[in-house]
Amino acid sequence: MGKGLDNVRGIYLDGIAGGNIREAVTKNTGHRYTQHSTGVADGVEGFLAFFEPFVQRNPKREIEIVRIFEDGPWVFCSAYQSLNDGAAKWVTMDMFYTDPDGLILEHWDTIAPFVEETVSGAGMVSGSRMVDTSANTAASKSLVLEFTKQVLQEQGTDKIANFIADDLVQHAATIGAGQAGMAEWLNSDAAGSYEMMFQLIGQGDFVTTYGKRHAGGKDIAVFDLYRIADGKIVEHWMNEEEISPREAWGNSGKF
Q1: Which of 49, 101, 160, 238, by CA, is between 20 and 30 Å from 227?
Q2: Fold of domain 137-242
Q3: Which helix (H) or strand (E) holds 31?
């Protein structure tokens, strides 16, 4: 396990969940901490200015990291958060860029309300968790890259069977089950247009993309997480967040 994974766990579990905010952010970040979670300013002091009051407002914090993997200096992490005995429940997907020592230099995220009942019936954070490190990472990433280009960006839904298993397990809250559910959603106004893929990272059978969609007159930052088996996408999670107006940002923005 890489040092980057340890540092991401540290900032989440020791810092945010454990309440050791200053110690965790100082220990687990590098010579800079560039922030893209728009409500949080850059640097250690920006992190403290947001999360010290957060801890005070939310004395009960249950945080579970449900999936985490690394791709060179990149770390992906998805977490479930229940605050104050379930008064608020969130799903986060985070991407971190780290230095050669695994210290965190940059952070992107989306934060979405936890949905108890999804359209497909599969849980929003349920499903496979462990990375199959014996799987071919390059092949997994190539499949997702071509799916993103040919189906999402070029809206080639007639090609969906080339990439998506018929019995796809769908965890995205608003998308129906299977290949048919994915195709129906992609052809709907709710899907809108996939305008930009900012980053793609993967390890073994897991791949995530971070990009921007435009739907309903809104710009949306979105993480798509995929699990690959037998040359097809067999499981999908999605976490999205509307991008706030520029004047509301506390840093350089979501990307």
Answers
A1: 101
A2: Nuclear Transport Factor 2; Chain: A, (3.10.450)
A3: strand 29-35
